[in-house]
Design goal:
The chain is mostly helical. The protein contains 7 helices and 2 strands. A two-stranded antiparallel sheet has the order 1-2. α1 packs antiparallel against α3 and α4 runs antiparallel to α7. It is elongated and about 50 Å long. It starts with 6 loop residues before the first helix and ends with a helix.
Length: 135
């Protein structure tokens, strides 16, 4: 009998880390407050890169988790991982180009990052690796 691959589990864990990290504090604010992914969606006026990137991250993660359990969506796992990765890239672009508090976070991205940010980053790496290596 052949050995069963653990790469689908790596993908599922990566997508779950993204979703959990999105709910956790991601960045420290200037006055000691912290912001999670939903705060970026709520505070971004008229859409903008920050809101679009945040939405892409959480939608990619949730769809990726669903794809692990729905047989018809198994072929789309890589697409959902890439959506989450694209959302992270768009979010970082939003931090560096938007004004106000987002620009302050963008200049000191790693200094202000909290454990939710690192969970999302590790989740994206694990999700993409699990999806690519499972093909």
């Amino acid at each position: 009998m052949g050995k069963k691959s653990s790469l689908p589990l790596v993908y599922l864990i990566g997508m779950a880390l993204i979703a959990i990290g999105f709910f956790c504090p991601m960045f420290k604010g200037l006055f000691g407050s912290s912001a999670n992914g939903f705060d970026f969606i709520k505070n971004a006026k008229e859409g903008g890169f920050v809101a679009i990137g945040s939405i892409l991250i959480i939608v990619g993660a949730i769809c990726g988790i669903v794809a692990c359990f729905v047989p018809q969506l198994k072929g789309l796992k890589l697409v959902f991982a890439i959506v989450a990765l694209a959302g992270a890239i768009v979010l970082i672009i939003g931090f560096t180009t938007n004004g106000g508090i987002y620009k302050a976070i963008g200049k000191q991205l790693l200094k202000r990052a909290m454990f939710g940010f690192y969970m999302v980053v590790v989740g994206i790496v694990a999700g993409v690796c699990g999806a690519v290596m499972n093909k």
